Amino acid sequence: MADPISMAVGTAVLTSTGSFAVASAAVTAFWATAATVALNVAVSSVVADRQRRARQNSQRIVGDDRSLQQSIPEPAPEHYRLYGYAFLAGTPFFLRGGEENRPYLYRGVALAGHECDGLDSVWINGTRVLIGNDGFATSTPFNDGVTQFIKVSFRSGTLTQAIDSILSADFSSLPSTYRQLGTCTAVIKAHYGTGANRDEQEDKHRELFGDGEFVPLWRVRGAKIYDPRDVTQSLGDPSTWQWSRNAALVIADYLVWKYPSISIDWDRIAEAADICDLTVRSKAGEAFAQFTMDGVIRAGDPPQDVINDLLSSCGGRLIRQEGKYHVRPAQIETPVGTIHAGNLRGGIQFNNGLPVGQLVNELKPEFFSPERGYKMVPGPVISVPADVTADGERRSRSERYPFTETSPRAQRLASIEYKEGRIQQTVTLGVDLSAFKWAAGRTVMLDLAQFNPVLTGQWRILNRPWSDGLGGYTLQLKKYDASVMDFDPATDEQDFEIDEDSDL
Amino acid sequence: MVSAELSAALARFDERIMEPHQFGENDCCIACADVLQPAWGVDLMVLYGRDYSTAAGYFRLIRKRGCSTLREAVALAAENADAVAVDAPYRDFDLGIVFCGTPNGVMELPGFWLDGAFRARSPFGAVYQMEAEKAWRHG
Asked: Could you give the ipTM of this predicted complex?
């Protein structure tokens, strides 16, 4: 049997899903990654896009016959935007292994084409690896007290960054100009495995890296973004911005990134950010900001989908008012005014919505679970038994929270979603100029019981276009109930149990 | 002074708009006719009957009376009840044809005037309109 460390690299095959099929032997899998440049990243992506990128990357490979001496002169910064805590594999720009480097494999990846705040952790084979200040692993099994099997380095992606420290130290042939300016990168130096003989080395290797591909995952504190509440920050000077996972700030940053000429109502973003920052507690007593956003966005992702996913992280709405955009996160609303019969212009159209029997009474949230290596997993089902009884049958729907970490956060969001989904009544009516200052997203009181008792109480403004025909505004309203925000973790938060048999 | 029968009919109208729309049971014509029956002392559906469960079935019935549209059917029913056409200002329990917006455009509905608005059952709930395309008064 050949020396595992110097075995030839297995041929990787790009499958239709963009992943790589490799030989099952651990050793082959470990080294096979050195030949696979275009690895899929742990983010949602379009298959065609992946394949296109794979082709592009394969053309950038500077390889030799051994296939282990590969590097890309400069990593093309992927058009990713990393927010909050982003969890991804990255795009390789440097891969070295083989006989001359044994027992080490070097893997450098580009994480983002913008400056990031820092490295939170690296995950290997489903295990979080603790890293010391010197870059070496400090936690078992990657540091067994004798050998430090992992060393990592991280560069945030400044325009002045130097060559990576691991690459600089171990590859003197690399020029000092090998800097990947403006690209956030991480490099890992991995030891194959120790042992007195080949079998022991392989056992150690499996303990460390498993049987699959060697694809470390990086949890990164992503982009520094503008916070209008911070007087030390300037919108026009990104060097003053700070890292944040505040959902409202992230959404504003995404809008500006995607649509540079867009006008943002920063005063309202500041108000929204305060709502997102409100501290709530889990059943276990852990305090956390109620609405955060963590994840990776690709420039090619459909903006409408991205915005909807972003808004899901705060139960919010994107609102355009007077030519400017802002976010209104879920919150207990105070009405901005009251509509009486005297305010009406034209008629009233009341829509009762779906019959009770057609409403969803089981909401199944999916979110990123730290307990499952930041994979998207189904969480506890949100349901009210009385609703199921009233509806006569179970009606289920899944709801994805692709930018939300942890079960307590996802359950809060799903609870809001569930309750709002049970409220279906809408009203369209014409109103005089008293609606001039009312913004979409806010709520008003209806005092129109003379028409029907249902036309009372608090309603949310969905839209407020001007109507020349009416000489006033056409308001589209949806029934609002502040109790949608009720969530007592002691009674409402369910335990999140990991299904170890799940494929997720 | 609203009679107990009329009061009950109005309460039933408010209930109906919260229930699913159903041709022949809970549609715009039946909901309006059931309020105006105690007010006018006439059943506006008497010409057509209530033996239908679809829109097509409704139109089959009104075509037997020579009507091709809901507006024509309501006008014929009003005429049959000895009602006369009127303009604003309206009085309580005047009958009117009002507009209702739908995802596909605008539809016409029969409604009755009460406390400042024509009230009509729509396929989605109800409409309350201060103006009518056409209106009739009984008595």
From this structure: 0.91
Q: How far is CA B39 from CA A277, A432, B70, B112, in A?
A: 58, 33, 21, 10
DSSP class of residue A148 equals B
Contact A360, A418 (CB under 8 A): yes
> Angle formed by the axes of helices A247-258 and A303-312, to 10°?
170
Instruction: With CB atoms and an 8 Å threshold, state whether A352 touches B127.
Output: no
Q: Which residue of A has its CA nearest to B16?
A: A352
- DSSP for residue A19: -
Tokens at A248, concatenated: 């409202």
Range A404-430 average pLDDT: 95
Q: Which of A349, A352, A428 sits opposite B18 (nearest CB)?
A: A352
Q: Are strands A335-339 and A443-447 parallel, antiparallel or unpaired?
A: parallel
Pick the closest to residue A428 from A484, A482, A473, A480 (CA basis): A473
Residue A466 Cα, gap to closest chain B Cα (Å):
17
Q: How far is CA B92 from CA A167, B39, B116, in A?
A: 88, 9, 8
Output the DSSP codes for A259-317.
Answer: -TT--B-HHHHHHHHHHHH-EEE-TT--EEESSB--EEEETTS-HHHHHHHHHHTTT-E
Strand partners, A350: A427, B126
Query: In the beta sheet, which residues pair with residue A54?
Result: none
**pLDDT per residue as tens digits for the range A222-269:** 999 999 999 999 999 999 999 999 999 999 999 999 999 999 999 999
Structure tokens, A388: 């199921």
The architecture CATH gives domain B4-138: Alpha-Beta Complex (3.90)
